[in-house]
User: Fold this.
Amino acid sequence: LAKTTQPISMDSYEGQEVNITCSHNNIATNDYITWYQQFPSQGPRFIIQGYKTKVTNEVASLFIPADRKSSTLSLPRVSLSDTAVYYCLVGDIGGSQGNLIFGKGTKLSVKP
Amino acid sequence: DAGVTQSPTHLIKTRGQQVTLRCSPISGHKSVSWYQQVLGQGPQFIFQYYEKEERGRGNFPDRFSARQFPNYSSELNVNALLLGDSALYLCASSPETGAYNEQFFGPGTRLTVL
Assistant:
């Protein structure tokens, strides 16, 4: 499984755009890139998933360059409630494996 | 529709005791996975069950066991509790077995071992 590397922490202010980059140099052809968000004492929540180029939903955008060795989660105009840990995961959505592999994630702190 | 539910919310046990944690998946979801999350770390995979069969097991000792019932709910059992078993135990469900399809996590059970 491809290993991911992301910053341990980031700080931002309300109203700013936040970009969290994840490195996955050994990503396999069938792997997708998935981001989860986790608030303290809650389970992780799926944010967005993509394979290549750009994916956008009502919460975030995911930018994936052509070589797919990295990806960037973009959160537009963050608010205090976006303070959370963000996990980048890489794996084959068509695979039979039953386990997600989480790293330590990026702790985002949004300040007023 | 109800999300994934877990019970109890919090639990305090002493070393050597046994504990059973329960999870009800989203209606229609056949896959249930269990994760352990210690403070400051990402969740670590313990078990996956799909259609009542074990489909995956993480690197946890035999003190950890689980099962899935015909209604797709699941129990996680931990015997001979150690202080290091103190953690947030998360249950996740999904319609199919592939973990990298969207997983829906419950709120977790906070286990404290004294």
Remarks:
- The interface with chain B takes residues 31-32, 34, 41-46, 49, 87, 89, 91-105 of chain A (CB under 8 Å).
- Chain A has one domain: 9-111.
- The mean pLDDT of chain A is 92.
